[in-house]
Design a protein that fits this description.
- The chain has one domain (about 5-205): Class II aldolase/adducin N-terminal domain (L-fuculose-1-phosphate Aldolase, 3-Layer(aba) Sandwich), CATH 3.40.225.
- The protein is about 40% helix and about 15% strand.
- It is built from 7 helices and 8 strands; from the N terminus they run αββββαβααβαββαα.
- It has an 8-stranded mixed sheet, sandwiched between helices.
- A hairpin with a 4-residue loop joins β3 and β4 (about 65).
- The N and C termini lie far apart (about 35 Å).
- The structure holds zinc ion (ZN).
- Zinc ion binds near residues 73 and 135.
């Protein structure tokens, strides 16, 4: 895909995230990989009305190649790209139910979001919870870096989600499935029945994937 198409896609999917209320005001940020570099939304940009002038080209270590100041949460995106060579897009969103659930569950779980639906488990699989860190803090970026090679979706306590996928479309799909599953968790008071370990194992086997235990 050409660079201009990638930027177009970044802008249009950012708008979709905003329209679907998966982030609000200037919250959240998005990026796409372009060869050895990444295009990421500018700091302070409203994703609902992102323009070409508000995307910044950086290398995988955060050096600006083109454009103005990148999002201060860039460190989380770059940690995902460095750890996952197959990642073509990263979305950091602030979905209401994901944040709600993050406040209700215990820290230290490698599968923080109960798999209430197969659609969730197929797309997201196991999603660990990262304890609270300030937005843009180096400690948050380091916590993401630590888990990025083993998990493509992470729940950030009292903050939101960071998700890496092959494309913007695929990554948005994951964000939506995760948010719906968090909504089911919250609505059921985490009392509904989720998929059994055996059912999850069958899905993992069919997809040929394993998780760090
Ligand atoms: Zn954030």
């Amino acid at each position: 895909m050409s660079t201009s198409k990638k930027i177009e896609e970044l802008i249009s999917y950012s708008r979709i995230l905003y329209d679907r209320k998966l982030l609000h005001a200037t919250g959240g940020n998005t990026s796409v990989r372009d060869g050895n570099d990444v295009w990421i939304s500018q700091t302070g940009a409203e994703l609902g009305s992102l323009t070409e002038e508000q995307v910044v080209r950086v290398d995988l270590h955060g050096t600006i190649v083109e454009g103005q100041a990148p999002s201060k949460e860039m460190g989380m995106h770059l940690a995902m790209y460095r750890a996952r060579p197959d990642a073509g897009a990263v979305i950091h969103a602030h979905p209401t139910h994901a944040i709600t659930l993050s406040t209700l569950i215990k820290e230290g779980s490698s599968d923080a979001i109960r798999p209430y639906t197969a659609a969730f488990y197929v797309r997201a699989g196991r999603v660990p919870l990262i304890p609270y860190h300030g937005s843009g803090a180096d400690s948050l970026h380091a916590a993401v870096e630590e888990l990025a090679a083993d998990y493509h979706a992470l729940l950030l306590r009292q903050h939101g989600l960071i998700v890496a996928g092959s494309s913007m479309a695929q990554t948005l799909g994951m964000v939506e499935e995760i948010e719906q599953c968090c909504q089911i968790s919250v609505a059921s008071g985490m009392k509904g029945e989720w998929l059994t370990e055996a059912q999850c194992r069958d899905i993992d086997q069919a997809l040929g994937r394993t998780w760090k235990t």
